[in-house]
Amino acid sequence: MKLPSFSIVINTYNRGKELADTLLSLRGLDYPDYEVIVVNGPSTDDSQQVIDGWAGKVKIRTCPEANLSMSRNIGIEAASGDIVAFLDDDAAPHSKWLQALASPYGDRRVGAVGGFTIDNSGVRFQVRKTVCDRYGNAFDVSPFFDERPLCVKGTPFYPSLLGTNSSFRRDVLRQIGGFDNIFAYLLDETDVCLRIVDAGYQVLYAPEALIFHQFAESHIRTPKRIPKTLYPSVVSKSYFIMRHGSARLDEANRQLEDYRAELHRANAWLADHSEITREHQTSLDQDVAWGIDRGSVAGMQAVGQPLGDLDLEKTTDPFLPFPKTQGLQIALVSQSFPPDNDSGIARWTSMMAAGFSKLGHVVHVIARSDKEPSVNYKNGYWIHRVVPDTGLESVVMADHKVPPNVAGWAAAVRREVESLKTFGLDVLSFPIWDVEGVAVADDPDIGIIMSLHTSYAMAMPFKPEWSLRPIYNHMTVQKIIRKEQELLERTPVILANSNAIIDDLTNAYSISFRDRTVLAPHGTWDPFELKPSRRNLRGARDAAFQVAYVGRFEPRKGIDVAARALKLLLDAVPEATVVFVGDEVSANAREYFVDADAEALLTHPRVSFRGMVTREELDDIYATCDTTLMPSRYESFGLVAIEAMAAGASVVALASGGLKEVVSDGVSGYLVPVDGNEADVCARRLIDIARDRQLRERLSQGARAEFENRFTVTSMVEQAIPAYEKAARRRNVNEPESHSHDRSLAALQVEDAVGG
Q1: Assuming Cys at both sites, which of 295, 465, 576, 593 could form a disulfide with 239, CB separation 3.0 to 4.6 Å?
Q2: What is the CATH number for 152?
């Protein structure tokens, strides 16, 4: 059976930001033949600019009024597909959405099919199956309820689809005249479903057709779903009651009065609980009176009218296939993730996700939540926040010999991966730290990548507290180190951001894995693109020379070296200033300054301690300072260095770990030998830069050029792609070398899953 073609209609009004994500989400649909139509209402935000960015890829229409039914009809008039599907501008579909909707249309008696809709939590259903009566009252029924017996002409109850997850045969929509423009908002699709049933067709549900609905603010409701106005919805409800229920006029009038009383009670409750003002309550009550008056009169005039307001004379443009992704379905695992956490792995994961999405790949991020689980589509990719699974924790502990804190998270990752397989997952990558993917590392259905960062074995020399806690060291640290070694031995594809991390892990575990490793140096966002005014921050400040230290106050980060070097700088250069970022001055930290004979820095008038700052504040600091000091004794890469370089700040760093591959000595800054004299040499380098303005400017320009040439997010992602392609090929030895998402095998699997 040939699958029907689909026209997906998105009706939008002042939701440019949400619309941008909805359009991006459509790239991941696994279906051979669909077009997209966007109908923009009289928007005053950036919606039209967003839509214009898709010119030539989607059909673009405008609606002169904030009227959903009118907008839907304009979309139908532009549609060329066999089936017209509606998707809200604040929603994102599961990749198999169209496959699931298509299956029931093999029966010509079926005029409409809808799916199940998940609410803005991403894990709870907003609507599954709903049955309505002829007064527009909705009743939730069991997801196993058989709606087919209700699909008969004149039925008092009938299946009613949710607008954001509904589809209709185009010829059936034309037969009933499309939507009725009186329904500017609310019950528009319910009216259509009733008229389709009365015309002799079935309205069915496809449970596998999933939509994730975000519930964005609109012109008639707040983000908390509090009404700004009730007038459009009251007109719709009153009109529906009288148009479809006035055969029993006494009952219709009773329904109207019950509806009026219900709304008055709701408005009073909102005011009593300070959700709205008394003035707002009065306005809403007035909306009720005016809406019932207009809607009921119009409804009586429309009794017996089977048609809507679709313009049947309009000619449609040829079918415009939507540009589906030819990329991969990628999952990235990272317990920490912005904005909750902006650690190195978290930031790397967010940049990889955005970069992969920009190149057309479908991306899922699996991050940790210590509150409630959620699934959202935002900024061009899916974010799955999951809670550690204590139920499967003991199973993972037994199977993989890892401690409970690791096992609970690994179990949650495994559970979420099983769910993601329904999207068509190709590749999953996880960081070596905390062996986050240990429970899925042997999954034969997907390609597996492990990304290299500082491991437990490498961190051990800089974590004396681990050795001071022998039970913790034995039960947690050593178990993880053994599992790290095991994963290094057998993970088929490994991703590294520096040669240093490859060499150091090879030495730490006595394992050779370079032949399985793809090198992709770290990148970072361009701070000047994010905020163009940053270009002028360095020249605008009064201080002649400013140095930043960014990092934790601990020996591995070289805080003792930094304290000594910066004390010498301030003594030698009266106009120099210093800013410390990233940690608080605790009792332990104070000792590092005392031991370095630099306690004076703690109260020095030219020294500021900023503690933890936001990402925007940190980028401003990089753009303000001349040089960033990085005396880390070990960095697997050195993200701080490229962040500073991106803002045009030179870097003085120890020649250790990955920093040797980031800082070009004498070009973007200076590398200081690790020979026991680091603090004095760092100080001399800083003093040289402070006293020589030409040198300072040359290093600044060199730092910025190095970033642009080597360390952009685009460069990082492009160099990482071969690892993901390699992993995707390895997941199934029968799959051809060149990966494409026009996969007939995947299509057959989907048809089997939905009974096609």
Answers
A1: 295
A2: 3.90.550.10
The C-alpha atoms of residue 611 and residue 172 are separated, in whole angstroms, by 64
Is position 257 within any domain?
no
Structural domain span for residue 150: 6-217
Q: For residues 67 and 75, what is the distance between their CA atoms, to the nearest angstrom?
A: 12
Cα within 13 Å of Cα(356), Cβ side: 28
Give which of 599, 577, 570, 604 is closest to 587, Cα–Cα. Answer: 599
Consecutive 10-residue runs of the chain (756 residues): their mean pLDDT? 92 95 95 96 95 96 95 97 97 96 96 96 94 96 96 96 96 96 94 96 97 83 85 93 91 93 94 92 93 92 89 88 89 93 89 94 95 93 93 89 92 95 95 94 94 88 84 91 94 94 92 95 95 86 85 91 96 96 92 94 95 93 96 88 96 94 96 94 97 95 97 96 93 44 33 32
Query: Do 425 and 551 share a domain, yes or no?
Result: no
Say what the pLDDT of residue 540 is.
Answer: 66
What CA–CA distances, in Å, run from 495 to 499, 516, 723?
Answer: 11, 9, 7
**Site of tokens 């039960």:** 475
27 and 162: one domain? Answer: yes
Reply yes or no: is the peptide bond before residue 521 cis, omega within 30 of 0: no
Find the CATH number of the domain harbouring 536: 3.40.50.2000
> Do 118 and 206 have their domain in common?
yes
| Cβ-Cβ contacts under 8 Å for 578 (sequence gap 6 or more) | 546, 547, 548, 549, 566, 569, 570, 601, 604, 606, 607, 608
Based on the fold, state whether residues 493 and 539 are members of the same structural domain.
Answer: no
* Beta strands in 502-654, from DSSP E residues, in sequence order: 517-519, 545-550, 576-581, 607-611, 627-630, 650-654
Helix (H, G, I), strand (E, B) or coil at 366: strand
Tally of structural domains, the chain: 3
CA distance linking residue 568 with residue 688, whole number of Å: 12
E strands of 202-290, at which residues?
Answer: 202-213
Tokens of 170: 């185009």
DSSP 434-464: GGTTTTTTT-TTSEEEEE----HHHHGGG-H
Final residue of a domain: which of 710, 727, 742? Answer: 710
Q: Which residues contact 520 (CB under 8 A, 6 or more apart)?
A: 495, 496, 497, 716, 717, 719, 720, 723
**Phi and psi of 217, rounded to 5°?**
-65, 150
Q: How far apart are CA 488 and CA 215, in angstroms?
A: 44
Measured CA to CA, the distance from residue 380 to residue 705 in angstroms comes to: 29
Conformational region of residue 665, where left means phi above 0, alpha means psi within -120 to 50, and beta covers everything else: beta
Collect all residues with Cβ–Cβ distance below 8 Å to 624 and sequence separation of at least 6. Answer: 537, 538, 541, 546
SS (H, E, C) 583-610: CCCCHHHHHHHHHCCCHHHHHCCCEEEE
Helix (H, G, I), strand (E, B) or coil at 268: helix
Residue at token pair 């009593």? 272
> Residue 643, Cα to own-chain centre: how many angstroms?
23
First CA to last CA distance, the chain? 8
In the prediction, which pLDDT does 751 show? 32
- Is there a contact between 733 and 420 (Cβ–Cβ < 8 Å)? no
Paired sense of beta strands 374-378 and 6-12, if any: unpaired
Please identify, among 519, 548, 569, the residue that sits at the C-terminal boundary of a domain.
Answer: 519
Residue 288 · residue 235 · CB < 8 Å = no
DSSP annotation of 554 reads S
**The pLDDT of residue 483:** 95
Cβ contact 580:697 at 8 Å = no
- Look at residue 306 in the predicted model and tell me its pLDDT: 84
How many DSSP H helices and E strands does the chain contain? 28, 26
- Our CA dihedral for 283, 288, 291, 295, rounded to 10 degrees, sits at 180
Helix (H) or strand (E) holding 559: helix 559-572
